[in-house]
Each structure stands twice: as C-alpha cells, then as structure tokens.
Design brief:
Length: 193
C-alpha cells in the first residue's frame, strides 16, 4: 500500500498594507487565484470614501474598473438620488474577474472573503452596500433573504460600518421601477443617523 501524499498547505495570504499597492496587486492578478475568466477588473475610488459598494464580480460590460458598464450607470443614478457625489462612492467586487462558472470560483471563495474584508479595512468607508445575495452570504455570514430590507452592521477593525444588502445591480434592469424603489428604500436606511 502506497501512503497518500498530502497536498501542500496553501501559502498564507500576504496582502498589501496600502490601498494603492492593493489596487495595483489586484489589477496585476497578484493577490490570489480566483477561478475567473478574462482580465482583472480593478476597483475604483479613494480611501475614506463615504460609501463602498461590493458586487460579486465584474459584469461582462465593465471596462477599466468594476461597475463601469450599465450596472455602474444604474449605481450612479441611485447614488446621486441618495445624495452621494460620484467621488464619494468606492466601487469594488468580491472576485477580480468575470465568474462564468461558480464551481470554478468556489474553491477560492474563502481567500477572497478575507481579501474583501482587508479591502474594506483599507478603504475605511462609513457605509457599505453589498450587491447580491450570494455576495452578502459570503461577506456577512448570513442569509439576507431572511430580512432583505434590514440595516446590518459590519464590525471591522474596531469600527462599525452600516451595511445594506441589495439585489445584484444587473438583475434590476428587468423590473427597473420596482427594483429602483426597493434599492432606494434600502439605501435610505444608510442615511438615517
């Protein structure tokens, strides 16, 4: 009988400690394996942005950065209606590339959740919008469909970030009036002191 050879343990994540270095490593694909397809689509925004939005992965029509396509235009409209200037919104995704096969991305999820939490810490937003139920399950560790309109609080690095969960932005196109109304109600919870 031949003894089984154990797979080597994955190398520990070593993540950049500045947002600029983190964004560069993201675009270069240097953070971790992800199971995605195509180019690495980078986040966009400044450290200390009032609002950070995290979606699951870039959309097919995203260009140079996450949420730069049709879903990004919808985001701009919702954010503007809620009183957020474009430079007050930081755009990010859980995975750095388009995910065509969830099964290919699944083995990498735990690493990317750690990376996302680190990313949130580097940005330091006051408020967080998590777009998509699967993204919320991964980041917030609960099923958002149980209380989809609730305001959540993410405890992060000794601070609390007000958080809401919305539908994935690209899913809002088909029932736009109804979906925008729901998004408006959810985002309004962030603005209540």
């Amino acid at each position: 009988m031949v003894p089984a050879i154990a797979a080597p343990a994955p190398a520990p994540l070593v993540l950049p400690d500045t947002l600029e270095a983190f964004q560069a490593a993201w675009r270069d694909g240097a953070l971790a394996s992800d199971g995605g397809h195509g180019d690495h689509i980078g986040p966009m925004g400044a450290q200390g942005a009032k609002l950070m939005i995290i979606t699951g992965a870039p959309e097919r029509d995203d260009g140079a950065h996450v949420l730069s396509g049709q879903a990004g235009r919808l985001l701009d409209n919702i954010a503007r209606t809620c009183g957020f200037a474009p430079d007050a919104v930081y755009r990010a995704s859980l995975f750095p590339r388009l995910v065509l096969d969830n099964q290919a991305a699944l083995p990498h999820l735990a690493a990317w959740v750690k990376i996302a939490h680190h990313h949130i810490g580097l940005v330091g937003p006051e408020m967080l919008v998590v777009a998509g139920e699967n993204t919320a399950r991964a980041l917030l560790k609960h099923d958002p469909s149980q209380n989809p309109s609730d305001l959540h609080f993410l405890n992060h690095g000794g601070r609390t970030v007000k958080t809401v969960v919305t539908r994935k932005l690209s899913l809002m196109f088909h029932r736009i009036a109804q979906e925008k109304n729901l998004a408006w109600q959810q985002w309004q919870q962030l603005l209540v002191e």
